[in-house]
Amino acid sequence: MWDWSYALEVLPELLRAFLVTITATLTGFAAAACIGMGFAILGRFRLAPVRLANRGIVEFIRSTPLLVQLFFLYYSLPMLTPVSLSAFATGVIGLGLHYGAYLSEVYRSGIDAVPRGQWEAAKALNLSRTRTWVSVVLPQAVPPIIPVMGNYLIVILKETPTLSAITLVEVLLTAKNTASVTYRVFEPYTIAGVLFLALSLAMAFGIAQIEKRLKRRFTA
Questions:
Q1: Is 107 in contact with 148 (CB distance < 8 Å)?
Q2: For the domain 4-219, what is the CATH code?
Q3: How much is the pLDDT for 144?
Q4: Fewest CB atoms less than 10 Å from the CB: which of 32, 70, 122, 200?
Q5: What is the percent of the chain with per-residue pLDDT over 70, rounded to a whole number?
């Protein structure tokens, strides 16, 4: 059933598409990390209307499917505004917004774990609010949550095939297109699955190593 000559023939094209998958994963995760941080900080804003609006946006994003959000950004947004984005840019923004809403809760847990005395010490030293966040709070809040953020990186990798719905040619769509032409589904889908598995395992191993180092750091 397995044809090695055919598998080697389609492998280069699948690898090129997998590079798109990796790029979308990393940029989407970077966007999610930045957006999630913004949501987390706004969630602690002094003005109640800002906090409530932020909470409403986060809950709306968390309560709607990623696919619906992607369709809106790619198909509906250009009809409502002059903004028209490429499939890749739309995918990155969609992943960033969707998982940024989830990461905001992860950031919140890390920020809440910072001892109250640290905030009071920064206030006693007359540090500005920006300096307090950058120099005191975030350096203590972020390291403990890095393993959880790493898990979301793997989740984003597994969600990248969803971007094929907005015509982004990633590895799974490439495998599907290849199979539709040659009518051989075993090799391209198997290779795509192995590529996802290999990268997921590599990411999981890297996250585990980071977690071990963080445990040694905080228990030393």
A1: no
A2: 1.10.3720.10
A3: 85
A4: 200
A5: 98
pLDDT at 133 over 70: yes
Higher pLDDT, 201 or 113: 201
| Number of other residues whose CB lies within 10 A of the CB of residue 25 | 23
CA atoms of 50 and 34, how far apart (whole Å): 18
Measured CA to CA in angstroms, residue 66 lies from 63, 112, 124, 161, 192 at distances of 9, 28, 44, 12, 22
Report CA dihedral (120, 121, 126, 131) to the nearest 10 degrees: -90
User: What SS3 state is found at 47?
Assistant: coil
Element (H, E) at 124: helix 116-124
Q: Residue 63: what residue type?
A: S
- Cα separations in angstroms, 34 against 38, 116, 149, 150: 6, 24, 12, 14
Predicted TM-score (pTM) above 0.85? yes
The domain ranges of the chain are 4-219
